[in-house]
């Protein structure tokens, strides 16, 4: 499986039956939103990159927000489940907290890094866009049975503190990784030793959740 969400999104767009102009607008919007951010991108720029008129953009999308949603919705509804189904079964093979945490930290941080633009766009919209929030929480709810199944099996084998529920452990894992990720995004000029930093993150997580 490709590990880059935007590459998979481009492939998904190419496979859909749609007018050529609409496809060009979606791909141009994707590239420019990733490079410049949503607020830093104008419909004129999208039209220029797509080699269409602005009228063509508004023929298919009433607003720039609708164009952004047309990009984000397939990512949340179609692509994230593919990554979920690829990732979760791998948790079943670990027998210690150390092994499991090491895998999650390295695997998921690499995934976040490779999809930095997608994460920034989606997380920003989660904070400001009710429609995106509803799509996201619907996807999370649909994934809950599979998430609980694999994490419950892993919990039993590796020895997680019994008083910690799934959401508490998830906050510990996700919070550490996203904090480090956004530190890199917000202050990219700071010197970092990624290998050492991730090792420290692993140690902090293990201390927090191990029996």
Automatic annotation (TrEMBL):
Q: Which Gene3D superfamilies match?
A: Tetracycline Repressor, domain 2
Which PROSITE patterns does this one have?
A: HTH_TETR_1 (PS01081), HTH_TETR_2 (PS50977)
Residues covered by the HTH tetR-type domain: 19-79
Q: Which UniProt keywords apply?
A: DNA-binding
**Statement: the UniProt record of this protein carries the keyword Zinc:** no
Q: Which domain of life is it from?
A: Bacteria
Q: Which residues bind DNA?
A: 42-61
Q: Report if keyword ATP-binding is assigned.
A: no
Q: Which InterPro entries match?
A: DNA-bd_HTH_TetR-type_CS (IPR023772), Homeodomain-like_sf (IPR009057), HTH-type_Tx_Regulator (IPR050624), HTH_TetR (IPR001647), Tet_transcr_reg_TetR-rel_C_sf (IPR036271)
Q: Name the PANTHER family on file.
A: ACREF/ENVCD OPERON REPRESSOR-RELATED, ACREF_ENVCD OPERON REPRESSOR-RELATED
Q: What is this protein called?
A: TetR/AcrR family transcriptional regulator
Q: Where does this protein come from, organism-wise?
A: Loigolactobacillus binensis
User: What's the source species' lineage?
Assistant: Bacteria, Bacillati, Bacillota, Bacilli, Lactobacillales
């Amino acid at each position: 499986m490709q590990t880059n969400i935007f590459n998979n999104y481009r492939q998904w767009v190419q496979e859909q039956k749609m007018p050529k102009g609409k496809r060009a607008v979606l791909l141009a919007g994707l590239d420019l939103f990733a490079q410049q951010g949503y607020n830093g991108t104008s419909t004129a720029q999208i039209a220029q990159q797509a080699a269409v008129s602005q009228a063509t953009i508004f023929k298919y999308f009433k607003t720039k927000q609708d164009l952004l949603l047309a990009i984000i919705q397939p990512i949340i509804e179609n692509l994230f489940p593919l990554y979920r189904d690829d990732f979760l079964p791998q948790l079943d093979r670990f027998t210690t907290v150390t092994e499991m945490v090491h895998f999650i930290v390295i695997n998921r941080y690499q995934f976040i890094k490779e999809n930095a633009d997608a994460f920034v766009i989606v997380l920003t919209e989660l904070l400001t866009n009710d429609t995106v929030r509803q799509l996201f929480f619907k996807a999370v709810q649909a994934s809950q049975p599979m998430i609980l199944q694999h994490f419950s099996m892993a919990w039993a084998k590796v020895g997680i503190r019994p008083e910690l529920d799934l959401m508490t452990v998830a906050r510990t894992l996700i919070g550490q990784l996203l904090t480090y990720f956004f530190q890199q995004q917000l202050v990219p000029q700071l010197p970092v030793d990624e290998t050492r930093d991730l090792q420290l993150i692993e140690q902090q997580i293990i201390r927090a959740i191990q029996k």
